Amino acid sequence: MSLSLKLKPPPPYIPSTTQNGSDTLHPSSIPPNSDPRAFYLQNPSLVPPPLISHSSFIPKPLITHLMRKKKNSALAVKFETHKRRENWDRITNMEGAFHTFLTPVVSNCEMVGDHVYKGRHEIVRFGRNGQGRVLVREVVLSAAVHMDFEYTNVMMRVCRLGREEVRGVELGDGWGVLGVEEKQEEGRRWAYDEGLRRHLVFHLVKDRRLPARREEEGRRWAYDEGLRRHLVFHLVKDRRLPARREVKSMSMDETISFLEYLISSEKHAPELIKDVRGRFTETYDQVLSLELLLNTAIQQALNEFSALEALCGRGYVYTYNPAAIFAKEIGAPLLNRLMVLALKTLSDQNIFANLRIFAFSDFADPEIIPLVKMALRRQPHVRVLRKDDLFRGPGGVYEVGKFPEARGARLVIHNNSDGFGQNIETEGMFESLDGVVGCCGSGAASLRRDRGDLLDFVF
User: Fold this and answer.
1) CA distance 306 to 56
2) What residue spans carry the region label Disordered (predicted)?
3) Which residues lie closer than 8 Å to 378 by C-beta, 6 or more apart?
4) Residue 342, Cβ neighbours under 10 Å: how many?
5) What is the C-alpha end-to-end distance of the chain, expressed in Å?
């Protein structure tokens, strides 16, 4: 397994974009008192299609499938079976997991307000100018998908250890997406998804295998039993035990400490990846491959920042909202530190030439900002902030007066969607960040599933 840590070179062609910085507002074509989402969906030519950045191991047919075949909405659900053919789901749980490695980025998304959270998701509208035209902020919309740990049937299935080992097997050249009718049959769907899972193991784990869980349990038991026998043999009550230098299966607290140690260390990318290789973490009653999780986070960051560097020649301000719902089965602290360690790994191998500010929403993880600063210390031109520091204007709008680095740069926001539903097109205003971004901007039109040029810019 040899995954590149270098950002991808810019593609020869990218979607059209304006040169306007996100720190100023502009009049739009939206008619007064109209629904912004409905207006843009009816006029998709006013906004560009996405630049789609994906990992090299994603089969091309799956890219088209994931971008065009999502169901209308997927709130708290993944793949479901239905009796009526017109309601059949088309994206299986493992196909949805592949969306983690497929990141659409919209170079110009027009927003009629800035998102705020006051017990629920809301918007602070910009209003109209003196001529009565609706004002918008032009931002970059990243539709990056969080690792989906909302339940145990998506990313948990990919990385957990089971009763038998999982040997990675690459999908062949003749691989194709399973038909929608066949997907309704549980046996065929399970076998198909298992093939997709093995493809990910092949590409994300150096040994191309996940061991059986009993192998790890046996090693841990033998290790602990050896320590116990040593103490019993010597009968020395106050003698200290040697440190556990190689922990094959760590508790969640041990895993968090281990990742924080790697982030704060002076180690370079190859050594960081080597240190995580063959490591496992426990959550509830599951044992997960830390190596697979980190390589997934690296691929996520590589795909997203490759696209942003290509699109934002005048600089960009990156904002990040950590997973909440999608971290339910594994915990946001772990996913946050995986993301930061992935960032450090890429920072060791690349210059984020156009990144001006990295702003992390730390309301649920106040210890994360110092870790981000350590991860980006090889990027001295990048300023690390709390996300709230950028939104100190009236009512909580974007305000960069204190941060000259942000002037003229593009603001990068996320809609935090998933791999199963086109929630940006269907969710209501107050239901989620996806709903706010969808209702109050042009993003849904850029990502519209039947858009003719949806797949024109893929790299």
Assistant:
1) 13
2) 1-39
3) 347, 348
4) 23
5) 21
Parallel, antiparallel or unpaired: strands 355-360 and 383-386:
parallel
Q: How far apart are CA 4 and CA 189, in angstroms?
A: 32
Q: What percent of the chain has pLDDT over 90?
A: 78
Residue 385 CA neighbour count, 13 Å, CB half:
21
Q: What is the DSSP string of 356-396?
A: EEEEE--TT-TTHHHHHHHHTTT-TT-EEEEGGGG--STTS
Structure tokens at 8: 């991808």
Q: Are 279 and 248 in contact (CB under 8 A)?
A: yes
Cα 250 to Cα 256: distance, rounded to the nearest angstrom:
9
Task: Give me the DSSP letters along 320-342.
Answer: E---SGGGTTT-HHHHHHHHHHH
The residue type of 58 is I
Contacts 24+ apart (CB under 8 A), 266-272: 268/348, 269/5, 269/345, 269/346, 269/348, 269/349, 272/341, 272/344, 272/345, 272/348
pLDDT the model gives residue 246: 33
Between CA 199 and CA 340 the distance in angstroms is 25
Nearest alpha-carbon partner for 189 in 274, 106, 281, 88: 88
User: pLDDT tens digits for 225-243?
Assistant: 666 665 555 454 444 333 3
**Total-model pTM:** 0.91
Residue 2 is given by DSSP the state -
Which residues touch 56 (CB under 8 Å, ≥6 apart)? none
Mean pLDDT across the chain, nearest whole number?
91
